Amino acid sequence: MSLNIAKNNKKRAVIVGGGFGGLKLANKLKKSGFQVVLIDKNNYHQFPPLIYQVASAGMEPTSISFPFRKIFQHRKDFYFRMAEVRVIFPEKNMIQTSIGKAEYDYLVLAAGTTTNFFGNKHIEEEAMPMKNVSEAMGLRNALLANLERALTCSTKQEQQELLNIVIVGGGATGIEVAGILSEMKRFVLPNDYPDMPSSLMHIYLIEAGPRLLAGMSEDSSLHAEKFLREMGVNILLNKRVIDYRDHKVILEDGTEIATRTFIWVSGVTGVTIGNMNPSLIGRGGRIKVDQFNRVEGMDNVFAIGDQCIQSTDESYPNGHPQLAQVAIQQGELLAKNLIRLEKGQEMKPFHYRNLGSMATVGRNRAVAEFSKVKMQGWLAWVMWLVVHLRSILGVRNKVVVLLNWIWNYFTYDQSMRMIVYARKAKEIRDREKVEATTHLGQDLLSEDQ
Amino acid sequence: MSLNIAKNNKKRAVIVGGGFGGLKLANKLKKSGFQVVLIDKNNYHQFPPLIYQVASAGMEPTSISFPFRKIFQHRKDFYFRMAEVRVIFPEKNMIQTSIGKAEYDYLVLAAGTTTNFFGNKHIEEEAMPMKNVSEAMGLRNALLANLERALTCSTKQEQQELLNIVIVGGGATGIEVAGILSEMKRFVLPNDYPDMPSSLMHIYLIEAGPRLLAGMSEDSSLHAEKFLREMGVNILLNKRVIDYRDHKVILEDGTEIATRTFIWVSGVTGVTIGNMNPSLIGRGGRIKVDQFNRVEGMDNVFAIGDQCIQSTDESYPNGHPQLAQVAIQQGELLAKNLIRLEKGQEMKPFHYRNLGSMATVGRNRAVAEFSKVKMQGWLAWVMWLVVHLRSILGVRNKVVVLLNWIWNYFTYDQSMRMIVYARKAKEIRDREKVEATTHLGQDLLSEDQ
């Protein structure tokens, strides 16, 4: 098995990951003279800022994602392959993926991050992460099933576990999901479950650090905290979660909080590639790169976006924040730099233009900060809506998301409250078993290309 | 564990299944003086006529379904419980469900049908049914994954298996899915997979009987067949599928068709309740009922819709066709009859008013027949759209479905081509294991109610 892409006389740029960075890079390499190969484990680009709305039953996965093949329809010299990259062989300019191997002239790693459980296998098994639409759909289904179960379970203890929601991690995702679930508690629960007082539901937001939204200003942190407290969220700061046992979240200070809805959005770590030398990996599991996003010690291997850490930008000696804008700007510059390289020109170093950051807590409530301006409340919320609507790919998705928002705003309703799991066909289960047993680099031993 | 519904001084009507029949019945019992309990294994009503559009990536599950709790918001004396009914104890007026037991004064079985594999366990394991949104999402994911795989698999043989699609069953669902997949082959495949000739894909529609759409007139059958042949579908009539082995569908005459997309829409059988006496079950696994939809030999147990068979209607001595309209009309009449019973009045017998039937083959192509009129082509197609749009529950869904249709019509695109499986949380997996081991009637042995 191979990726089955004919080599032509063009240089081949293989991009691993079609998030904000990889997608921008692939777009900017249009008509550049490169053969572009995009590899992603999903067949679609997803829009992480709205994943929490999928989890809360306000948005469909298909409204915030876009199939790669559709994005790149009619694009010449472009190939998409759905696969996971397992191993890189820099000396052979070759990668091994779950569906075979492929050669490259330039390799760009843009696979982003995965949820960080800080080595706690037990929490990893029990907690619900929310890093992609698949996990968000799983969380939606679990939330709704827990509410149904709470009506009919045998004991008050179990009912309390089913109704309590614990969110670990006070970053943007944590406050966004806490906010939207508190709205669900207030506006949906009393109507859907009239025989179950919504006051029984308690929402906890636990943060190990001293404040929410550590990546933003103290002012924004305080506003977000104030908004959430007004909305009835129990905020615990400076509290570290160390375990989850018998349907209880255990804090370092011994406190226990009963819950069966244990949401983990406490941090991320760079996606790892099987054989990468540990010396190349920096803080947060991120691949160390130079000012041109080149992986240290390699000529033609690059990393961009959340997956890399670059400490050459004067204003960001500890690396850039892991934000969409960094990935987009790095993808944009790298496209130019690859073209320059081919022309025998010098590459240009990366400098991040900070376009600001924002987070939304609920209807009419958000915090936003730009280079000189800070905003809170309604205006920040409108800004948030506009910025995110503009960023979503595709006219159809923009329309659908906007209509959803308008509908949800006026009805106070998260209307997609169906518990649906796609039935996995035997053909697919069989194939996954085979792929899972494809060992690292195994294929390279065989003769076939 | 119990269903946890307080008994009051009202008579309790328990309805099992919230499809067309059960939902109509529950609606018509509003303000009737009954306490209504609706039990369904899903927390939403679904709209079967559009499930094939979910499978073909043209529609979201949430656009063609509606949460029961939302339908019945603010309804007095109404209870929804998500559960499966396992056993009926008529002498105790009690049912045992997956979440405990409940008493009833009247019990109405409206659980519909399930896919009929005619006892072939092997086909049951390998084939993809398409009876609900979960299966439709599974089929969508498998279809898309097979196309991705076809690009990179090792052999021409495997590629052909991945590209061939075999649909078994020439009823309305079979022709609808054959039609929409042939449109996908024509309009989507060449754009999404420019390096894979769409002529490699072959779509087979296999029917054991002598014609398609056996439930409609010969005229409609011939038109449907003609439309599908024009669209490039290979139609095999009078061919019986007996097995699926080594990625091949095996016909009775020895013919083998290679495929890894083996869709089974060949028939249905009534949903079975654990301890029901076989003498009560008629043709097609349907529960035998009298002219009032009362289960034979029981006073206060009824069955309506696809799950029952009624041979007392003069024009339908072999039972009614399994259509939405029959279920709706039976639900409507049964509501009146239950109210009559409570008033000490005689019940009225059921007579089906045939409002016609229709099936769509593709854009601008459908067949429809009403008592005196038969239509084909564009006019029938428009009728089909209007009738189905009117029948979908909820303003939001109507708007979303209409916009989707308009979008798909003008773009020739089934745009939801993302492969997404909801990640199943450990809490839910654990609970399912426990429920699966709840034996039939086990709870009744214990003392707790």
TrEMBL record, chains A, B:
* Domain spans labelled External alternative NADH-ubiquinone oxidoreductase-like C-terminal: 355-410
Q: Where is the FAD/NAD(P)-binding domain?
A: 12-331
Instruction: Give a yes or no for keyword Flavoprotein in this entry.
Output: yes
Q: Name one Pfam family in it.
A: NDH2_C
Q: Which reaction does it catalyse?
A: a quinone + NADH + H(+) = a quinol + NAD(+)
Q: Which SUPFAM superfamilies match?
A: FAD/NAD(P)-binding domain
**Family affiliation:** Belongs to the NADH dehydrogenase family.
PANTHER family in alphabetical order:
EXTERNAL NADH-UBIQUINONE OXIDOREDUCTASE 1, MITOCHONDRIAL-RELATED (PTHR43706:SF47), NADH DEHYDROGENASE (PTHR43706)
Q: What is this protein called?
A: NADH:ubiquinone reductase (non-electrogenic)
Organism this protein belongs to: Bacteroides zhangwenhongii
